[in-house]
Design goal:
The chain contains four helices and eight strands. The chain is an alpha+beta fold and 204 residues long. The protein has a six-stranded mixed beta sheet, with helices on one face. Helix 2 runs parallel beside helix 3. The longest helix is centred in the middle third of the chain and has 19 residues. It is globular.
């Protein structure tokens, strides 16, 4: 909810799922990141900007258990419109790849320690073409004049992985994230997790 505050979200989480020391919440507009660990390096948007804001922040993981922290980029791409809105979704993906390139190199607007895991996640509304999603994986920026040169987004100079998450971590092929049995549209996969697989691996 764009009109709600981070304080309100924290209060809700602390009520329905209490944890030791309470939840940490970073909220900007309709986007939010919640973590049991502190949230630092907060950015309500990235630069150069895409069509919609991209929230980014570093989750300060316990040093005793993790050698580096975790960097999250939370997104909500333009919905609907099929291929009509693909250029807007593409701008967001181009901007994210540019930001990830900046994060891996000294200077600029953001700089992360080497091998900091990065995850892009959220409602990408992939209902038209696949290029916005492929750009997040391969670093193939479409608007190089605005967002710079193509750049493999993982630390080892390779592609990111698109997580093939099944429902509730159980066996099966279902990966849709939206379903409405009263709708004319079939269940679809609109939400994605894309990550730097050279420094991060899923366990479920």
């Amino acid at each position: 909810n764009p009109s709600s505050t981070g304080t309100e979200l924290k209060s809700l989480l602390d009520t329905i799922q209490p944890i030791e020391n309470g939840w940490n919440v970073f909220k900007s507009g309709a986007l939010a990141i919640a973590s049991r660990w502190p949230i630092t390096n907060r950015a309500g948007n990235i630069t150069p900007t895409g069509a919609k804001p991209v929230m980014a922040a570093l989750v300060d993981l316990p040093d005793a258990d993790f050698p580096v922290d975790l960097y999250l980029m939370n997104v909500h791409y333009r919905c609907c419109g099929g291929t009509t809105n693909d250029p807007l979704r593409q701008r967001d993906s181009d901007a994210i790849v540019s930001w990830m390139r900046d994060a891996r190199t000294p200077g600029g607007s953001v700089e992360l320690p080497y091998a900091t895991p990065m995850i892009v996640l959220g409602d990408m509304n992939i209902v038209g073409g696949q290029q916005p999603l492929l750009t997040l994986a391969t670093g193939d920026i479409q608007d190089n004049a605005r967002y710079g040169v193509d750049s493999f987004p993982d630390w080892d100079g390779s592609a990111n992985t698109i997580l093939d998450a099944t429902h509730n971590a159980v066996a099966g092929a279902d990966t849709y994230t939206w379903r409405n049995n009263m709708s004319q549209f079939d269940p679809g996969r609109l939400d994605y997790i894309v990550y730097t697989d050279s420094v991060l691996a899923p366990t479920k």
